[in-house]
Design goal:
The protein is α+β, with helices and mostly antiparallel strands and 109 residues long. The chain has a single domain, classed as 2-Layer Sandwich (Hypothetical Cytosolic Protein, Chain: A). 20% of the residues lie in helices and 22% in strands. It is built from three helices and five strands, in the order E-E-E-E-E-H-H-H. Strands 4-3-5 form a three-stranded antiparallel β-sheet. Strands 1-2 form a two-stranded antiparallel sheet. A hairpin with a 2-residue loop joins strand 3 and strand 4. The longest helix has 10 residues.
Length: 109
């Protein structure tokens, strides 16, 4: 039986590479003249994504290094981020992250 290849991504916190299915995807969304960081658990939201292990350690490193602003290439205020909230996969700004972009062909489902 063959092992299916998983795409590799780099965690913005610890900078280690891991399979995509082991990391949580985050996106930047325009809100009130700035950008909010939103969790993308279904990996369907549009925009540039940042990947991070769902652990408090990686979340703390990402906040400390200002990794989200660097990954998204837009200014993001990470001072309001709680590493425990980030590790749990919740949006740090409290904005509903269930808004998704529907796939065009349906083949992504």
């Amino acid at each position: 039986m063959s092992v299916q290849h998983q795409p590799q991504r780099t965690c913005v916190g610890c900078r280690r590479k891991a399979d995509q299915n082991q990391l949580m995807r985050w996106v930047a969304a325009a809100r009130d003249g700035g950008y909010a960081v939103l969790a993308d658990p279904h990996r369907r939201m549009s925009g540039r994504g940042a990947w991070m292990h769902p652990t408090p350690e990686c979340a703390a490193l990402a906040v400390k290094r200002r990794a989200f602003a660097r990954a998204f290439r837009v200014p993001v205020d990470s001072s309001t981020f709680d590493p425990a909230v980030l590790a749990a996969g919740a949006s740090p700004t409290g904005i509903d992250a269930d808004t998704t972009v529907q796939p065009e062909s349906g083949s992504e489902i």
